[in-house]
Amino acid sequence: MAKSYKVLFDLSTVVHSKNQFAGIPQETRVLFKTLSETEKLTPIGFMCGMEPAALFSKMNRTDKVQEAITHANLILNFEERLPRFKSKWMNYAVRYAAKTKALFKRNHAIWKYDSFYNDYVWRKAFCNFIETEYKQLILDQEFVISDFNKWSLLTRIYANMRLPYLNTKGYDFVIFQQGFPACPNVSKKTIPIVRFHDAVPLHYPDTIAHSRYPKMHGKSILSSAKQAIFVCNSKPVHDELLQLIPSLEKKSFVIPPPILTEGVLPEKNNKAISSIIRSRLSKFSLTQIHSENLNAEYSNYILAVSTLEPRKNFISLIRAWERLNYSRDDQLKLVIIGSPGWKYKSILQAMKPHIKTGKLIHLEHVPVYELKMIYACARTLVFPTYYEGFGSTTLEALQAGCPVITSDIPVCRWVLEDAALYCDPYDVMSITNAIEKLLYSSESELLKDQLMQKSKRILQKFSSEKIGQQWVELFQQLNRDR
Known about the structure:
alpha/beta; Rossmann fold; 8-stranded mixed sheet; 3-stranded parallel sheet; 20 helices; 17 strands; about 15% strand; globular
C-alpha cells in the first residue's frame, strides 16, 4: 500500500484574516479541501494565533474541565475577545505581558483539537466560502492547535533573533501560508514548505498598506530560504522569486491553486440576483443610494470582484464604464464586489455619484453560492489589475460561464492563455474598447462562444484532481531527496 503523507497545513490565515473574502484565505481553504480529497495525503489543519494568546492555558488531557477551558480560551483568542478591564493601562499591561512571554518562548508544542469544536472550525474558517456538500469531507480531517503565534515569528525575523521552534514530530511536511513567506524552525524529519503568493511589497510598494511591509517581506524570504521549500502560485511569480534569490532554483516549484468545484453551471436567475444585491449592499452603498433605486432590476451589468485597494485598478474600470454609459449603453450597470482593504478612499469617491443613481452597485460579504449566481448573470467579468500572483477571480468567472476581460500582464496570460480578452490596465480606452468589443460588436456572440469553449481546457488544468496530484508528486520527490 502506498504511503500516506501526513501534511500539517497552516490555517491561521483563514482563521484570522480581517477580510475573509480575500484571495489568499480563499485559496488556502480550497487547497485544504483539495488535499483532503486526494489519495496518499492526510492533511491536518493547524491553527495558531496571529498574536500571542493572552488567555492561553497549558493543555491538560487528564483534566477534562481544564482541557475545555483551554479550548474555549483559544477560540476567544481567535475571536480577539481578550480580557477587558476598566483601566486601559491594565489592558495594555495584559497585552504587553502576553507579547513579552511569547517573544521569549522558543519551544512550542502541538495538541489535537477536540472534535467537539469542529462546528466552530466550520463556521469560522469554511462556512460561506466552501459549499456545504464538502462540510463532512473537511470535518473528517484532524485539526490541531498550538500556543505558537505569527507575531513572535515575524518579530524575531525582523529583529534578527533566533527563530522559535515548533515541534512537528510525526509529520512528514508542514505547509505555511500567509502574506509574509515565513516559517519557524521545525522538527528534523519534517520538511517545511512555504507557499509563495507574490512579491507585491517589494515590487509594488506604492500599493501596499504599511511602509514596514517591504522589509518584513524581504526578511521573511531570506529567513525561509535557509530551510524551506518554496511553492509558487504561478510561473511568473516563480521567476520573480529566482530574480530575488537565484540559489532557490532547486528548492522552489510551481503548483497553482486549484479551482473550487467543477461541473454544472449555476442557474441564471435575474430575479434572484436582484434580491441578492439588495441584501448584500455594502455599508457605504446603504448610506449613499437613493431609496427609489433599491428595487431596480439587475439583468444588464458587468462585474468586478476584488478587495478595494490600489493594485486592482478600480478607478480605471469605473472611467471605462462611464465612457460606455455615455457612448453605448446608458442602462449598463457596474457591480463591484469586495470589502475595503487599504488606500481605498479614492475608489469610494469615484463610486459615490454612481451609487446614488443606482447604476453602480457595491456589495460585500457575498457567500460562495450567491457569488456563483452573480457571475453567471453578468455579461462579463472585468479584471484590469496592475499585478497578480495568480488571480483566482478569473477562473471563478469562467466556471460560472462568465466571459473574462483582464489585464495583458504575464500572470494573466499564464493562467488564462487564449480564454480571455486582454486590455492594457494603464489605458482607460483600451479597457473601454475591450468591453465594447465583447458586448456590442457584430462579433460579440461568436467571441463569447469561442472564449467559453477555450475556457474548458483552462479549467481542466486547475482541477482539484490535477492540482492534488501535483502535490503528491512534489511530496514524493522531496521524500526521495531527503
